[in-house]
Amino acid sequence: MSKSFGAMSVAQLSVLIQGGAADPVDVVEAVFESIANCADKAIFTTLLEGRGMEEARASSKRLREGRSLGLLDGIPIAWKDLFDIEGLPTTAGSVVLAADAPASRDAAVVGLLRQAGMVAIGRTNMSEFAFSGLGNNPHYGTPVNPRGMDLPRIPGGSSSGAGVAVAAGLVPVAMGTDTGGSVRIPAAFNGIVGYKATRGRHAMEGVYPLAKSLDSLGPLCRSVRDAVWIDAGMRGLTAPGVVERAPPGLELLVPENIVLDAAEAGVVAAFEAALQRLQSAGAQVSRTVIPAFNEIFDLMTRYGPLVTAEAFALHHERLAGPDADRMDQRVVMRTRLGSRTTLPDYIAILEARSRLIADVDRLVGNRLIVFPTVAHVAPPISPLERDDEHFFATNNKTLRNTALGNFLDWCGVSIPCGTAEAGMPVGLLLSATAHRDEALLGAALAAEAVIRGDFA
């Protein structure tokens, strides 16, 4: 059993730990052993053996003395290389920050989950500075999607190592960030669950930013229930308050524009089959055009993407100095595009964004929006590394669907709904308007089995 601790869900492992059938020390030792034996050395950038074992021993002692901190006590967790870990520099998937001063304290959410008893295992790899939806990293290597059986395929980004660490059965949960899809994309590509919270739901102190107007947090895990439990811990709650919303009476809205454009046939087939299962279970499905989707891309064409403007503002001094030569040149190229967005342009984007959010909120109401997380399955790594034009075109298509939710300030959960080309997973994205996370999670919790169908 010990070899499979990392392949369990948080809920499954919690039952064993709380019931005394598994000791946190044994669990964490087995997790580190599995990581050491894993052939893919690009998944983690740093392991925290000393800290992890110390936290596991403390959890074990609490449990023996009847002082459990709750459902998450003793559960291992991996952290994306954007979260401050006390005593270590935060490198954000880059080599240029490696010599920075170490963090004086944990990031706020790291501290909250430590207070809940979770055990920090290490930092996971990522796209440099979180600026890619594909997950390639020339400095630390690119984690390989464990679902690919034919040839090496991308993990999805930017939370690449987080998605692979969970999908490969190394840890039950890994924490990511999401600015344009960086939790939901690797979840979809790797066949796991990824929850992106409404921006501002979780504390951002100690998290290296990309674009503060868009950045949000969320876990990559094996089930929606796991996401619900982790979300509660991230907000300092001792127990979740999410109530399941059964599919009968659930109102779903499928957009008729943008999100299915040029989608792979297998992705569409898996999505439509899941939608039919939801209808058979009692969900009400309607389809309509969401005009704001087209306007968002018109805004990007006219002024440049909001994420690129804010990333350039963050990194412009670095890009003007010698550090630029040490960065992923594709990240450099993409970030420099933000210099084209003037201050009047930026203000125009923000004003349009406020208007579009209000327009879509009125159109959607209390319905949940549903469409494929990504319009294609995880593509092979090799062609993307060889060809810049192919890389940028694939990156744009990969980010297209999820980025709509970030711009409109939605929350979202990607749930596996089937497979397509080469047996690769397809994700179905359930989204809700801002601050309706409880309603979203409640619906996802009840509908997950229906959405998954036969997907294991």
**Unreliable stretches covering 5 or more consecutive residues:** none
Order of strands in the sheet with the most strands?
1-3-2-4-6-5-10-11-9-7-8
Order of helices and strands: HHEHEHEHEHEEHEHEHHHHEHHEEH
Mean pLDDT: 97
Number of helices: 15
Tags for this model:
single chain, 456 residues, alpha/beta, eleven-stranded mixed β-sheet, 11 strands
Could you walk me through the main structural features you see in this protein, from its secondary elements to its overall organization?
There is one protein chain. The chain has 456 residues and is of the alpha/beta class. The chain contains 15 helices and 11 strands. The protein has an 11-stranded mixed sheet, with helices on both faces. Helix 8 links the parallel strand 7 (251-255) and strand 8. Helix 2 (24-37) runs antiparallel to helix 3 (49-64) and helix 10 (306-319) crosses helix 11. The chain is globular and about 60 Å long.
What's this model, at a glance?
The chain has helices at residues 10-18, 24-37, 49-64, 108-115, 160-167, 184-190, 224-234, 265-280, 291-303, 306-319, 329-336, 343-364, 381-386, 388-407, 437-452; strands spanning 44-47, 76-80, 119-124, 173-178, 193-196, 216-221, 251-255, 284-288, 368-372, 411-419, 425-432.
